[in-house]
Design a protein that fits this description.
The chain is mostly helical. The chain has one domain: Orthogonal Bundle (Hypothetical protein af1432). The protein is about 65% helix and about 0% strand. The chain has 15 helices and 2 strands. A two-stranded antiparallel ribbon has the order 1-2. β1 and β2 form a beta hairpin. The longest helix is centred in the middle third of the chain and has 29 residues. It is globular. The chain starts with a strand and ends in a 6-residue tail after the last helix. This is HDOD domain-containing protein. Pfam families: HDOD.
Length: about 290
């Protein structure tokens, strides 16, 4: 017997299920876990550059995962600048600054989309997607610093949220058995693209970042790479863990062993990978809370 909810038959073919999710997203009918809504309040506070430091520290301490990751990332090589280790949130927030702290808040938002996933297979996909996300974000930060010249903090933030549509889709897939099984027609990718734009809009992500994320699946790397979009494409191409959703981005195949070799030599790439790996480890931790 097919399940019914709100007059809708949920035991349907995948195309209809994807269409249902897209229609909801297009209406702005996107529901976040309660934990995400709490973190969004922290994000809104940090959006105010005049937010008092003591208030920011209080908000960070209210989220234990965020507090731990803030201290860990502040002590990583990319952010410590060779300085002494910090051992408390006040010192970590002072070192990181609000912009980098906002990137960590975004990571908490992304991870907590997994909190409602029950199916073990979907939870495994969410874990892999988070691994992919942390590698892309860390690589984007390092590539921005050493190759493309875009703002590294913006690149870090964009890397963290670039798969937010995929996380949302995973969080909904429990309702539609088989939704994310083999998809030769790539309806899942189309659905993820639409949902991503709506989730980014609901999260009030700046247009420059949202536009770069929205263009990822259809874009190619400029030579020399110099934009946020280029940075994300490179980071995806060099990420050692692939996304479990959809096909790999095409841009790296076009330039592998050719033009990119003149922009990023082997020594530079090794340095970027080593720096990014440490940052990635500092950003890691439990995905599903």
């Amino acid at each position: 017997m097919a399940r019914q909810r709100g007059g809708y038959n949920f035991q349907v073919n995948k195309l209809e299920a994807f269409g249902y999710i897209v229609a909801q997203a297009s209406r702005g009918d996107i529901t976040f876990p309660t934990s995400v809504n709490a973190v969004l309040r922290l994000q809104q506070a940090l959006d105010d550059p005049d937010c008092p430091l003591d208030e920011a520290i209080r908000l960070v301490l209210a989220e234990p995962q965020l507090a731990a990751r803030t201290v860990a990332l502040a002590n990583s090589a990319a952010f410590s600048g060779g300085g002494a280790s910090v051992t408390n949130v006040r010192a970590a927030v002072t070192r990181m600054g609000y912009r980098r702290l906002q990137a960590l808040v975004a990571s908490l938002v992304v991870r907590q989309f997994g909190s409602r996933i029950k199916d073990p297979g979907l939870r495994a996909k969410a874990e892999q997607l988070w691994e992919h996300t942390t590698h892309v974000a860390a690589l984007a930060w390092s590539l921005a610093r050493h190759v493309t010249g875009v703002n590294p903090d913006t690149a870090l933030f964009a890397g963290i949220i670039h798969e937010v549509g995929g996380f949302y889709l995973l969080s909904r897939a429990d309702e539609f058995p088989g939704l994310l099984d083999d998809d030769p027609e790539k309806w899942g990718e189309l659905c993820e693209d639409v949902v991503s734009l709506e989730v980014l809009k609901k999260l009030a992500v700046p247009a420059t970042v949202a536009d770069a994320i929205g263009a990822l699946r259809r874009a190619w790397i400029n030579m020399p790479p110099s934009t946020l979009l280029d940075t994300l494409l490179l980071a995806n191409g060099y990420a050692p863990v692939v996304s479990p959703l959809g096909a790999a981005l095409p841009a790296m195949a076009e330039h592998a062993d050719s033009a990119l070799d003149f922009v990023i030599d082997e020594d530079l790439l090794d340095m970027i990978r080593a720096e990014a790996l440490e940052t990635c480890k500092a950003m890691g931790g439990p995905l599903l809370v």
